[in-house]
Amino acid sequence: MSGRLRGTTVLLAIGALLTSASATNNVGGNDEGGGLRRKRTTDKKQQQHRRLTEADGVDQELASRFFLPSKAQAELDEIDMRELLFQMNVEMNLEMSMSFITTPAPTKAPTPSPTQSTDAPSISTMPTLTNCDNPGTCQNRLRDQIFAVSVRMGTTEALDDPNSPQSQARDWILEECDATIPIDPCTASQLILNEQRYGLAVMYYGLGGDSWNAGANPGQDAAAGPGQWMSGLNYCEWGAEITGTGGSFKQLVCDDLGNVLNLNLQSNNMVGQIPPEIGVFFAMTSYISFFNAQSGPLPSTLGYILPLETFDVESNNLDGPLFQPEYAGPDGLKEIVNFRASLNNFVGTIPAEIGQWTKTQNLWFADNQITGTIPTEIGSLAEMGAFLFYKNKISGTIPPGIGNLNKLTWIDCEENQIVGTLPEEFYSNLELEEVILKSNSISGSVSSKVGDLSKLGTFWVSFNQLSATIPSTFGNLANLQELELQSNRLTGTIPSEFGTMGSIDFISLESNLLTGKIPTELFGTNMGGLRILYLNDNQLTGTIPSNYGSSPRLKDLWLSDNLLTGTLPIISEGEFLFLEELLINNNDITGVVDESVCLVRNNTIPGGQLGVFHADCQPPPNGGQPQIQCSCCTACFV
After folding, report:
1. pTM for the complete prediction?
2. Cβ atoms within 10 A of the Cβ of 22, count?
3. Residue ranges with strand state E in 330-436
């Protein structure tokens, strides 16, 4: 269903919504024109004015403000009805007294719902202005209002299916006409809340509410207390209070006018599709439902929720296009701050209109099946702090505009199909703390400007096609903890400046074309936090530095498959106490492994932690002495 309406028919429908049966906000619809912008004539405005002022609860001044604009305004060709209705809903609630009516259990069975046409509503669907105390009138008005909602949400056919969430929600809310204190289908300010009550009911039935971890109300007991959905209470009391490791939160939060403001249904055993009726929550700012089993596509009616700031559906089974034009197109949402949709099955491309999400701070859609390229407009997201899109099928280059993201602290595009060089502008993002670009086809070199990223803690660019030498400016990065450069085509020597990276924990330079000696600085006193050092599969020469045992926390030291010579240095007492893996095989190292090294093997008494020790201690096939004599190696190579 398109996110906008056009045409004269919808003007009448809006009038119907704002009368005693169907006042609402955020109108969308499914007219062929597909728009919510339309021409309006003075005659039709006057007609709507009459209907409004005849209905109880809407005063002359308010109707005139919204439906009888000045002559100059009347001559405008287009009016953004979505914005207008949003403001009108807010002001109507402010100006009118709003006393939400609770609805205890019904006293008798509801009147059966008549078969409804699935065609767009005409003026004949407007309710008759009769006594609202009559339960029959109540049900007729509610049916009309629900039908009007279904037209906007594109779910009219679902009302004819008795097993659909929409049909179940309608039947449930109709029963409230027969309650001891019945639902109010006439007061204008209440109609907006009735729509949201219906929308919540659709969500409950559509997402397996009876099996939820919190908020479940099997049998929909009207007498259920706070924290249970589908009770006769004000729906603002339905939200359960959840306490977990991350703190406490409430499932459902309303604003002062009774509109749904936040829905936080994380880790709640929700199964099923997010219904289009989510679009009735016109004032909602946050929808969070990660760690569930929601499936199917996202409803395009998200585009009706203009104030939406946080949308988090990570770790579900959702599919279909991720960025739909109704909420991510030219007329889409503009207030998005957090958009998290990772770990699903979404498809589609990143639209250029993403550049309109200028308030976005977190854009996460990792581990999906998104294709296409990164649009240049991504550079307009100046507030973005985290950009995560790893494990997709995104191709093309990283646009230079990414250098405009001056608040970016975290980027992760691992396992995509990105090509080309890393633009120099990338290093202008001085707030960067975590850079993960591994497992792509990025070529060129790592710029010396990397040394300007003083806050950098993680830099992973492994499994690419990078060439040239390793910049010595890495030594400027006092906060760097993890450096992955392995499986590229890097040449030259290992910079001795690495020895100044005082916070480093993990260095992987394996599987490159590096030459020269291993710098003694790698094992210096400033490298006390180093635990992992992978230098294998290169062309390194010279001897193993004599101070290699002075790194107090070293756990893994891989030096295999190089051109190293000499003997394995002895170690002093108290060194290599945490060493678990030592690989020196496939080199030209000779001699006898000293007993000091064997004493840190994990099978000695008291013993150390060394459990993997590979060396060239296998005698040659044609006989003779092994290259290295080792009594404590765990694997020998020729």
Report:
1. 0.80
2. 28
3. 338-340, 345-347, 362-364, 386-388, 395-396, 410-412, 417-421, 434-436
